[in-house]
Structures are given as structure tokens and as C-alpha cells.
Design goal:
- The chain is of the alpha/beta class.
- It has two domains: about 240 residues, Alpha-Beta Barrel (TIM Barrel), CATH 3.20.20; about 70 residues, no CATH class.
- The strands form four sheets. Strands 1, 4, 5, 6, 9 and 12 form a six-stranded parallel β-sheet that branches.
- The radius of gyration is 20 Å and the shape is globular.
Length: about 325
């Protein structure tokens, strides 16, 4: 008989733990879009998103993230509360997510990387470049700045191979310096595919759209740095610039409401990063580790659950595993 592994055991005992120690949830999304090519798994279809909202309204109490944080700070009950967050501020949030959120009165927080406002994120350019039906060669050779360092990404003409290549290249690019990344992105652009190709749908919101968002009482704007780097890999002075500059830019957009929340890009941070976020006046920060939000948690390392691109039935099962057992239904 096969003995369940650690992850399997955690999944099996999760409902019991959540029943004995109930709490709230923070859900994370990126794009709400119908994507025919999504190698990084960041899209939830608009149909599924509407179904998610129906389940959430049936099982939970949607609140603003600031409300959830305030209740944690005041040691008030957060059981069955849920806050929705959207990283990166894609334009399809305005087109596909916000109309449904407004229709149902569900609040949300959008974390913005200010260096990309109105632009296309580099990882979406990578995904477009490596789309399998765009390939004329099964391999891509990329020159890195180290002498003699050329990395080859293979099997690009198959969907499985192209998906793996896109994931590997994006991982590699997230770990390098901005200068090296810019050089490699230029190599990809010279290959003949650009992010401005029709149908990409991957641009970030404009400043005008962000200002409109900031005027809504149900919408909160938070910071996601300037350049979306791995903060833990930067020098303290560089981390400080990313954290401080993004807030100043967003405060100029949001006006009197201010910017209270922060989200670590890639979930990357260290203790010094956490201290910088607190020193810059943010009230909380979201990480990427999964977990239930309970009293006693560090407000500068809040866990989030990344919502799957699942239909109503599967999403209900997934969500229920985190909410715990509710005897007698509900």
C-alpha cells in the first residue's frame, strides 16, 4: 500500500485543522481572461470567476483586505471572511473582473507594479514569443552576459515543451539583474515576436483606469514595487527604492485614500524586507505561502490562497478544504 506523502497528508488533514482553528481567507488572482495559451497558469476564465464569486457569497463573507487586517489587529472574529486580491493590475481586471465584483458588491484589492503601468509585463512577452504555433524552430538559444553562457530552450513546437520552456525562461529571467533581463528581452524581440501582437490582452492598467479604481469605495489599491523584482536578492538600498517609490507613485494616483497594503513580488522577501515595508508606513503585506488567516499572524507576512481556474463544483470543493468541516451544511 502506498504511504501518502507530506503534501497528501496536509491536504487530508486541512479540513480538520481549519475546523478546530477557523479563520479567514485571502484569495489571490492575476488575470481574469479567456486565454488559449497560458503557460504560466495565471489566468482564470471570466466564466469560472463568476462562478467563484457565487460560491464565495454562498459560503463566506467578502470583505476588504483592510477590514480583514483591522479585525486581526483588534483580535476580532474573522471566521469565514474572505478578501480578494489581484496582483499586477492587468487591464482585463477592469474589463472582466470589476463588472462582476461591482454587480455583486464584492470588494477587492489590486496590487500594482508602478513601472509597468500602461505597459506589458516581460513574462507575457516571453509567453507570446514561445507560443508553440508561432515557432519556426524547435529550439531557442539565449545568450547570457557571462562569457560563453548560452542557454538552450528546446521542444518549442509542442505545447508541453513550449510550456516548460516558458516556465524555465521566466524563472531564469526573474532571478537575473534588470540589465541582463533587458538584453535577453531584446534578443527575444529580434526573434520576430512582440508583445504588441493582436490578442495578447496582457497590458497593465493605465493611470486613468487606476484613478477610476481608486474612487470606488469597494476597491483598494496596494503596492507591488516598481519593477516586480525578487526583493530578497536586492541590496537593502535597492529594496528601499522599490518599496518607497512605488508607494509615492500610487499615492499620487489614489489621493487622500493613501496606500496601506503591499504584496511581495514572487513572494520573495527576507526579514530586512519586512522591516522596510513596515518602516515605509504600510499597514500589512501579503506573501505567497498558502494558509488560513488567523489571529497572531504576522501582518507583514499574510498567507494567500491562489485561486485555481476551476468550475463551480471544483472550486467549492477546493474552497471547502480550506474553510474546514461545517457540520449540518453551509
Amino acid at each position: 500500500m502506498r504511504i501518502p506523502g507530506k503534501k497528501t497528508l496536509q491536504r487530508l488533514v486541512r479540513p480538520l485543522v481549519s475546523t478546530l482553528r477557523p479563520g479567514g481567507l485571502i484569495l489571490g488572482y492575476h488575470r481574469i481572461a479567456e486565454a488559449s495559451w497560458d503557460p504560466l497558469g495565471i489566468c482564470v476564465s471570466p466564466v469560472h470567476f463568476r462562478q467563484h464569486l457565487e460560491v464565495l457569497l454562498d459560503l463566506c463573507t467578502p470583505v476588504t483586505l483592510q477590514t480583514l487586517v483591522n479585525r486581526l489587529r483588534e483580535k476580532k472574529n474573522v471566521k469565514d471572511m474572505v478578501a480578494l486580491t489581484f496582483d499586477d493590475g492587468y487591464r482585463d481586471f477592469v474589463e472582466n473582473a470589476r463588472p462582476e465584483l461591482d454587480r455583486l458588491g464584492v470588494p477587492a484589492t489590486v496590487f500594482i507594479a508602478t513601472g509597468f503601468i500602461g505597459k506589458t509585463y516581460w513574462w507575457d512577452e516571453v509567453a507570446l514569443c514561445l507560443r508553440p504555433d508561432n515557432q519556426t524552430s524547435p529550439e531557442l538559444a539565449v545568450r547570457w552576459n557571462e562569457p560563453g553562457n548560452t542557454r538552450v530552450y528546446s521542444h518549442l513546437t509542442s505545447e508541453r515543451g513550449a510550456t516548460r520552456a516558458a516556465q524555465d525562461l521566466c524563472r531564469d529571467l526573474s532571478m537575473c539583474t534588470a540589465t541582463v533581463r533587458a538584453d535577453i528581452m531584446e534578443q527575444l524581440r529580434q526573434r520576430g515576436q512582440t508583445a504588441s501582437a493582436p490578442g495578447t490582452g496582457s497590458k497593465a492598467m493605465s493611470e486613468h483606469q487606476l484613478r477610476e479604481l481608486a474612487e470606488s469605495p469597494n476597491m483598494e489599491i496596494g503596492s507591488h514595487t516598481v519593477n516586480h523584482p525578487m526583493l530578497a536578492q536586492l541590496k537593502p538600498s535597492e529594496q528601499c527604492r522599490e518599496i518607497e517609490s512605488s508607494r509615492r507613485h500610487l499615492e499620487a494616483i489614489a489621493g487622500s485614500r493613501g496606500i496601506q497594503g503591499f504584496a511581495y513580488p514572487h513572494g520573495s522577501f527576507e526579514e530586512h524586507t519586512r522591516q522596510l515595508v513596515a518602516e515605509q508606513g504600510y499597514e500589512y503585506a501579503c506573501a505567497s505561502q498558502q494558509g488560513v488567516v488567523r489571529h497572531g499572524l504576522d501582518l507583514y507576512s499574510l498567507p494567500r490562497l491562489w485561486a485555481p481556474d476551476a468550475d463551480q463544483r471544483k472550486f467549492r470543493v477546493w474552497l471547502s478544504s480550506w474553510r474546514g468541516v461545517r457540520w449540518g451544511g453551509g
